[in-house]
Amino acid sequence: EAAGNNAERQQKSRFLDAFYKLADTTLEGRVSGAETVIKELVKSSEESDSSDKLKYTIDRLIKGLPSTRKCARVGFAATLVEVLRAFPDATAEQVQACILKYLPEDTKEDKNHVILARGLALAALVRSGKAVEAAGSVAKEVLELGMRYSHLQLMACDIFKELLNQVNEKKFKKKVWPELQEMLSCGWEDCTPLKLYVLVQAASRFPSMVDGAFLQENWGCDSILDKPNYAHIVQILQKSTVVHPNVHPVCTLILQAVISTKGFKKFWKSLTDEGLLASRRDEHVFLAVQLVKWCLPQLTTTDKVEIVLSPELRKQVIHALSNSWHVLHSISCNLAQFLVELAKKSEDAQIQVAILGFFVQPPGTILIDHITKMKIIHDILITAKPECVQWYAEFLKGIARLEDREGPPHLLKPQREAFEQLSNLLHLPAMAADVDFRTDIVHFLLDAYTARVHHKDSAQGEAVRKLFQSAVLKSIVPLKKTQLTEFVDFLTSLLLRIKASLGDGASTDIKKCLKKTKHTLEKIDSASGLDESVATAFKVLLLYLTILTALGISDDPSSLQEVCSSARDLLSETSEAEEEHKAKWVQLVVDLALSMLSMQSLHVRAIATAAFAHLHNQLSDEALGLLLDVFSPKKSGDKEEEDSDDDEEMDDGAEGGEESESEASEEDSDVEGEENSDPDEELRSRLRAALGSAAADEEDSSAEDVVPTDDQMFELDGAIAEAFRGRLRPANKEKSKERTVSIHFQTRCLNLLNNYAKSGVAPLHHLVQIAAALVKASSSNALRGSHEVLNVISDTLHVISGTRKFGTILDVRSDIESLTSTVMEQVNLVSHVGMKNALSSLCAFLVRCHKKICSELAIKKVDKHWYMPLYMKTLDSYLDENSHISPQLFVKLMEAYPEHCLDFVEHLVPRATDCAERNYKRLHILGLLVAALRIVQVDASSKEKLASVLEALSELSIKLMTDMTEKSEPKQHLLVEVCDLLLLVAKQCANIGMECPIRGNSKLEQSLTSLRNTKMSKRKPLKAKLAALLKGVQTTSVDSSAKPAKSKRKSAALNGDATPKKHARKS
């Protein structure tokens, strides 16, 4: 009996605790509580008396609806729905009685909570399906709540709509209609948004009840949506703003009914332009914007979209969008983003035009992106159809043609922006292949430029002149999908148009320039045997520079003269001096390309890069030298750099000496500097001005001593500091600016070298020269701290190292050996990660080039392994000193030439087995050994050497594993390397047919078993390694000989892999 009572108490306690879970903030907690309540009710329903518990549950749930504790309203309402659905004994009358009893309107508690709870209880009753039998009273009570309390109108609409969906016409006529008939007979004068919503819902759901006779009698019309009723509907919808920021469902309900009819345009104009927007009230404009966002996705025709995006809407939205202080600024930004996304998704170009025109047509502006700091026009044009872009181009032309008649004779800001945007349209993806569009835009820009700012006596300002020049330059660059030969034809047509537009008004110099260019082009076209890529490059440079000169964009004709001179050398027919002429014209072209790269205009630099790419086959040693001179230190700065290097060497040497000597030398140098320094009169004058009377007193020895106050001393300190800052600041700024310009120029030249190395036509000795120059430049003081340039240098060196195809091969073995020695010294000093990896790859590339030269030129008497002493010396430095050397240096060589893996292993094994070796160095050694054993290729001559090495490494690994077992917390990195090493030892033993020394080793088995129980070994990679090792150790030799079929599978556990592999389908 006591046990039964105890079980009953636990069940009751569990049931009561479930009600507290219903208020949990997590969905899982509320669901768990609801399940417990329903399960307990199901258990009690099997007993004789279950009605009390069900009644208690319903009462408890309804009484808990007003609670504000956590998520009580959500949990109790949802559970009430499920309880009413699950138990047929619960009736609507019972729930209504509980509502009247526990949720009275005249309560002493907070009335708002009680009223909301009544709405939740009625919603639960409807959603459970129990409200059908009492549909009339439920509908009446729901609508009364909505009419009395405006904040419950949305809830009342949703509940009423769901109730109508549950009842059929018979029950509606019998139970619901009698309760609604009086309310719906009010007519237009007393109609509210809620009444209109109920009327439209009832008319659409049961048209036989809300028929024409009823409407004619009470509303004076045959249909609610008749055109004469638009004025009444608009007035009612304007009252629906009480539910903001939500939109009253009656608005969308009416629009849904009207949107597909012929009267939509008139209704929309009456609702928004003449109603909501005309009132100028913020809440009405807010509602109009929300209705626009709802309506636009439903429209499929352009005329309806234009009706929705009306000029009145544009006027108010653009005003709010342009002013961040406006109360509707946020909703206007939201509408702008909505329209941009709609334009992106739309496949209709006319709809895109309507959306784009909404922002740019007055009172909108093409400056909307600058004003709002948003990318509205930019984002629309990126994915716009060609028809939309063409419309916008014509729109911009119309703005650009306007003249400022009221102000001074300069372009307005929208007009200047129109020219700039016209040039930007040419680079859109949709217009890249449209030659006619590009020609039309460029011709328009050229005509505008020659008409407004070309002449010297033009009244346009310098800023406007530069803007026009930028627009023209931006429009005459080769596009990504355009061949350079097509670009030549394009430039030719432009030059002819410029010549025609200038006519007789051109100056004598320009006429001579045009005539000279025409003559040179004719010679290039008539030349026989001229390489097509070279001719194309010359034509591009010649035509482009001629256009710039004819337009007055370039005032210096020297560049054009250089191209003409190079063309003459190129077309020279003197066979004796052919190589000399070739070297000369290539140098001139490369020099011209470098001068164009130094310009600020991105578009001029693009022309230089495109032309240089067509001269890769013709690049001479002298021309390449001009390009590499960019990375050499200036002659004037050579001495300073050497001095700085000497200072660094002295500092390094002083580290091992006594500190007092270094301090004494520094003091001596300071004294000498002070003695030898020239007096700075400018600084003295500034100090005299800062000291003021104090300086005068110092000069006058007879003046009396005056002790200044603290404030005077602070003021004096500030004045002296400002005097020193005034001396140093301008020089530092100028120096920093020059350094930035130099770094940018060198980066552009590196891009040229990068493309040249990728072309596959570069001679081998050119690649070696480029690598030598870049390695030297990376160690200079000017570039050592520039990560941007070092990144580009490392990328270029990676491209060079990956080259497998060369144009020509010359015997430059001495240069390769010297560069390899330099790189080996450099890897000791470099700390930049990208440069370390690049130098590691470069060393292996240089070795490959050396072997390539020997094989191609049939050089037999040569030391094939000349590089190994350098590598071994660097390896000793890596192991003995704290250097910046990367282990990738050795791994790259082993990957390229696996025959050297055993040389590295033999060199590393004595160091690894040395008991005096420190652990962090041993970790590096083990890492290199693991890499070497993975790459090594075994042949008959190396089996004996490898066998002794494997024996020594297995003993070392077992000893290290035993030592780590004795420690409470072994080092994870060291443990991983030892595991990898043991797995590779076992794999290589199987490859050479040697019995694995770790198989059956009891000491190793104990160590592995102990290590598997540590917390560290629970991680997946290490766990798999230890498991594979333990499996291999436990497999004895007797087992493997007795079961040959499984021996291979068991030895596969020691294959050197960290994780077990699944069976993969062989391709």
TrEMBL record:
Cross-referenced InterPro entries: ARM-type_fold, DNA_pol_V/MYBBP1A
Compositional bias segments (type: Acidic residues): 639-681
Transmembrane segments: none
Organism domain of life: Eukaryota
Disordered: annotated span: 634-683, 1033-1067
One term under GO cellular component: nucleolus
Pfam family, one: DNA_pol_phi
GO molecular function (one): sequence-specific DNA binding
Localisation: Nucleus
Keyword Nucleus: yes
Keywords: Nucleus
Similarity comment: Belongs to the MYBBP1A family.
Protein name: DNA polymerase phi
Organism of origin: Rhipicephalus zambeziensis
